[in-house]
Amino acid sequence: MENLGAVAVLIAFCLSLYALAASVLGGWKNRLFLVASAERAVYSLWLLLSVASSVLVYSLLAGDFRMAYVAAHSNRDMPALYKFAAWWGGQEGSLLLWSWMLAGYAALVVFTNRRRHRAMMPYVTAALMAPQAFFLMLNAFVASPFKVLAVGREITSVADGNGLNPLLQYWAMAIHPPTLYLGYVGFAVPFAFAAGALITREPSDAWLHTTRRWTLVTWLFQTIGIVLGAGWAYAVLGWGGYWAWDPVENASLLPWITATAFLHSVMMQEKKGMMKVWNVSLISITFWLCIFGTFLTRSGLVSSVHAFAQSQIGGWFAGFLAVLAAGIIYLILNRLDYLKSEARLESVISRESSFLFNNLILLASCFAVLWGTLFPLISEAVTGQKISVGVPFFNRVNIPIGLFLLFLTGVGPVFAWRRTSVASLKRNFAWPLAAGLVLAVALLAAGVRHFYALVCFGLCLFVTWIIAAEFYRGARAIRARTGQNLLAAAVELTHRNTRRYGGYTVHMGIVLMFIGFAGAAFNKHATAEVAIGDSFPLGRYELKVREIRQGATANYSWDHAVVDVSSGGRALAALEPERRLYIASGQNTSEVAIRRRLNEDVYLNFAGMTQDNSKAVIQAYVFPLVSWIWIGFCVLVGGTLVCLVPSKARVGQARPVAKGTAVEYSSVED
Amino acid sequence: MIVFAAVLLALGGLLYALAVRARDLSPPEPVSPAGALREKQDAIYENLRDLQFEYRVGKLSDEDYQRSKLDLQKELTAVTAEIDGLGGAEAQPAAPQPAPPPSGLLCPKCGARFAQAMKFCGECGEPMSGGAA
Questions:
Q1: pLDDT tier at A462 (50, 70, 90 boundaries)?
Q2: Could you say which residues from 479 to 538 on chain A have a Cβ atom under 8 Å away from some Cβ of chain B?
């Protein structure tokens, strides 16, 4: 069976090289047969990788312990979901997933554009096949998941496997990596379109619309992947948090930041033909950072909690990254004339300048995160000592940057394109600003003394007010014309310009997430050794250990503490944090227990028993407002989905006919 | 069996990629020299609509609105002239000269035309002698 998988990967590798060469040659010499053949090779390649992936998944599910990968990442008693998730639980399998996803994206791009962008499509295909060939080379020759265990020339097998890393045996972990990969891999598509447009000097901006939608979808996957990862860290790792500025977390954040910058700055190009070099650079940097993130995860260059994917393939990635960077820089420098801006900034107080600011600040944040992540390497190169900068550095730099971005989220919608007079600004800003200030002062008077938290809450109200005003004003204008009620008018408004109002909804999601982040300023923590029947206080809560239970499943043994949570004498909940010992790997994990409420979470981790087995060690936390992060995330996802719906105005709009400066509409908009 | 499947897979994949017939080729896209300019024109129209909407909901002062609108109209004129310069037939398909519009369809101030009679100009807000908007 493994031979079938290995042969499929090998042929897929050959086909990727063929598709790369045939599409470049076909595009260059205008040979339509070669172009069509390259596109078919892309479909074949995806099919072959689907076969290879199926072989691996079947082997994992069936427990074929002759295969080294199966023996290392699966075991008999693991639930089927985690056996399936073992596909991406290790180096070789996750690289195969990368290849399969990239091939899927490539096939989808080729299929959906089979009648569009014909001049640039050969180069788009080539730009997708270059990373595809690189990853398939790794799959076929460097990190094959189809190796078998052997003694001498004799194939052998083990009775049972090591099992998937217990930390990964959690439902969110079955979704988090593939979603994140869909994000990482997906950024190859906008990059490929940008490369194709640059190579062919595509005169039309149609590719930009295609790219924007792809970027939005990919950005959504990346966002979901990042937040699921945060949710996993919060609920599984048991250290009491959702984000630790771990190098691998940062690696996923970097392309997300640059993609966010692109999604804003691309509007400048679509509206005014500005910032073309910047946009192409952002797309390219985003894709480069995706590969860089994969490189960080796997090279073991910086120490990380994601140690399960480390290996010695870093050199290959470093080489590919260097080639990619050189190619991008050459292409952009060579096409500077094509990328010339068609307009200029007309006023400092304008939507354009707010986007520019937003981009600069996002890039500053990206640079700060990159600097902090790579600091151990930089310090080692300069001083000979590996020094990690740690969480305080990231917080010190990124909190003010984040708050400034939040401020811009409010400012942006108020600024008009081209110019905004001071009078308009005063009119639009006065109430939201006053509301934000009043809230901050009220919180100060109520005893909140944390500066950043005060600023954050004030800004959250400021931005919320502005977004609500945007919806209200627009809906009111529609209501005046159509007589609909305000809610129906707001829906109509959103449908007319899904991109704008979906964008505002995404901003609202961000605001809610910031409320959750600000809650971290008021976290409480206590670690206590408690005998059964005893209790200890944490904030306004009283935590009493009622009993310790023990048991076992086929996969792990467990013991959990039953802790009664009460406040002011009133019983609130019985939480049951659990400690597990996985049989196959001999590794301990914690299953924390969380009482989730909108105002605060009570979070308990059972760290085990004391040496004499008489007391339970309980780590208890109170996390105020943390639920708002997950609520904000749902709003953000909803807003992004709205952005993806085609606008009614765009769909139903009849083509206007121009005669000089006079304009004739065959249908009149409200 | 596995060897047979592997060989079949290899041959199938290669054959599908290589055996392209003339009828499998995508039809060439129609070449339109004015295509990019039309996109630009559409973008300006969209900007005009946005501007008008933002003005109507009270986000823009009169002065900002008039200046930005004038800028956009100038851009529109330039792009339209460029399209016209590329050749009337190609640039303006299916555009027979319309009869002069009755009052209420043509704004006396800014010259905007509308398919329906309007009380006020949808472009500049000037009162017009037409029916309901």
A1: very high
A2: 481
